[in-house]
Amino acid sequence: MLDLIANEDMQSSIRVFCSWVLDAPVAGNTELKVQEDKLVKVLTYMSEEAVYRIRIDEGNDIKFNQSGIYQALSDNPNVSINDYRENMGSSRILKKLIDEGLNSYLSMKSNSSVSKSNSIEESWLNDYSVRVNTFWDLTQIDLGLDAVATDET
Question: Choosing a second label site near 85 at 20 to 30 A (CA), which of 8, 26, 62, 74?
């Protein structure tokens, strides 16, 4: 999928990737901003399958995916994804990803809480969350492949 978007306008995609590496914003260039938005959406879609974990105290943790954040945002304008000590592993990456604007639907607030992106309507985010949850339901189908006997004769 990333290939399709990048190949659509390879020159702009390369310039966007270089701007990310050089930490140089593309906001002043409309053509690059459009291509960057497309690439960020693809990255957001690709990251929907990731699972994150935050510890809420010494013996308890919460495992979630981005869909859980979307759902929590339907009840609260801000959601904390902070570990009680320090974010580690994939949750550290998630915070950085959101902070860098690499999730089309979420943004990081100054108090390290997550909110919906200003460019997204709440109803749209709720509908998108339902679609992501449906995807999760469909990918968790047990095909019973481990119960199939193989004939090795």
Answer: 74
- How far apart are the C-alpha atoms of 76 and 117, rounded to whole Å? 14
Does one domain contain both 60 and 99?
Answer: yes
35-89 tens-digit pLDDT: 889 889 988 988 888 888 888 888 888 888 898 899 899 888 999 988 888 888 8
Is the separation of the CB atoms in 75 and 122 below 8 Å?
no
- pTM as predicted: 0.77
Question: Based on the domain organization, do 31 and 66 belong to the same domain?
Answer: no
Instruction: Return the bridge partners of 52, or none.
Output: 64
**110/127 same-domain check:** yes
Give the DSSP per-residue string, 52-90. EEEEEETTEEEEE-HHHHHHHHHH-S-EE---SS---HH
Q: Residue 147 domain-assigned?
A: no
Residue range 122-142: mean pLDDT, rounded = 83
CA-wise closest residue to 69 among 131, 30, 113: 113
Q: How far apart are the first and last CA of the chain?
A: 41
Q: Which domain holds residue 130?
A: 48-138
